[in-house]
Amino acid sequence: MPQSPTPLLFVLITIFILLGSGSSSEEDYDVTKPALPEVATLDFVERFRVSDPAENVSFNFIHKIHVLSDGNLVVQNSGDYRLYEFTQDGEFVSEIGSQGRGPGEFLEIWNSMVSPGDTLHVLGDNMSHKVFARSAGGEWEFIRERTIQFTPQEGLDRQIPEDKILAGSDGQTYGIFQGYDESMGGTYSYVSSISHDIEQTGDVSRPFLIADLIVLNQDDHAFAITNVRFFNAFFSYLPDSDEVILVKNNSNEILFVDASGNETVRGYLPFEQVPLNMDEVNGMVNYYRNEVPGSANTLRNQFLEHEPYYWRVLQNDDRLFVHFERSEKDKPDWVITTLDGEVMGSFHIHMYIQHLAVNGNRLFVSTTGDDGTVYLAGFDLVDSGS
To answer: Taking a C-beta distance cutoff of 8 angstroms, is the pair 191, 244 a contact?
Structure first.
């Protein structure tokens, strides 16, 4: 007749099961919530700072920072009629455009984009679209111009991309478009193929809400309000794999979306859930309550329940640069990760940044000094030795 296990054997089996389980160990690493970096692995070192791009001209508000294929920069100054090229070390190279109504001239520039091959598309007064290209000697040549004939768009379609132009290895170019539509609940982005005139030629592909927007109406005035403490999302596109990348500011998932709209979580980012800064929230609510009576509840219902996980996300080749909210303000608040979320480095930026562009380990930023001066500045990320 078989004998039952001895009490000692039963105890040993129980201990083995508990130890092998691992689910109760406090040292287990949760892959869905990577740890916040405690020590910066990279130092943020200033290399140059420029406030006056040309004689008798100061930066007013830097609207765009474009990085060219050789690392040089093209900077769009808000309210200006020209753009400015600098080396990656902040040395002035040239002005692009001049004041006037003729070829290559502007009264004001309201948007600019760079397409592959360093072709510069400048959108200016009277719906003009003027195109410049760099010669072999590095000089900017005016190529062509046209007047954009805006036509009524149906559904979510938009005619001209808002910001980014990309190219696949097959030479096909794509634009990331942006619009506002009530059916989407706010501002949305999508990707589509474009022509050499940067107009949409393909279908709307993978439209996603990227920002909550509130429209408050008072008498004859309308206030369109977006805020970093509302829902926001980073939207980018990989032409060769035909995948959209999404990072939402209320989730730490890195989402990849294929051509059929199927979503896959490719990785996770560090995050901290920090209570809202109610002084700043109340300040905004009170401002608009004075402008538009009765708007307070509408605004309060739109805020996240906590500070956004991410203030800014940028893609540079196969890396993500992620600025996350942190309660300990002296700790690293930026990480560099792979597109799968593997952390490659961390650093801390001690200043407020309006715009940011990346080339390798050099960051180009627009910032405002204590005296109100607007700067274009360059910083290197240098191994801290930690």
So the answer is: yes
SS3 105: strand
Does residue 270 form part of some domain?
yes
214, 299 in Cβ contact below 8 A?
yes
SS3 (DSSP) at 249: coil
Place of tokens 């091959």: 117
Domain extent at residue 288: 30-383
Residues 193 and 172 sit within 8 Å (Cβ to Cβ): yes
Burial class (CB in 10 A: 0-12, 13-18, 19+), 206: buried
Q: How far apart are CA 179 and CA 183, in angstroms?
A: 11
Residue type for 384, please?
S
In a domain, 357, yes or no: yes
How many domains does the chain fold into?
A: 1
pLDDT band for position 55 (cuts 50, 70, 90): confident
Pairing assessment for the beta strands 98-99 and 105-106 based on DSSP bridges: parallel
Cα–Cα distance, 151 to 78 (Å, whole number):
26
Give 105-160 pLDDT, tens digit per residue. 999 899 999 999 999 999 998 889 999 999 888 899 999 999 999 888 888 999 99
How far is residue 224 from each of residues 177, 198, 216, 249, measured CA to CA in Å?
19, 27, 6, 20
pTM reported for the whole predicted model: 0.89
Tokens of 342: 């593997």
The CA angle 250-252-253, to the nearest 5 degrees, is 115
* In the predicted structure, residue 231 carries a pLDDT above the cut 70: yes
Q: What is the CATH number of the domain that holds 272?
A: 2.120.10.30
Radius of gyration in angstroms for the set of CA atoms belonging to the chain, rounded to a whole number: 25
Task: Give the Cα separation of 71 and 162 in Å (integer).
Answer: 23
> Which run of H or E residues covers position 180?
strand 173-181
On the CB side of 271, how many CA atoms lie within 13 Å of its CA? Answer: 26
Residue length of the chain: 386
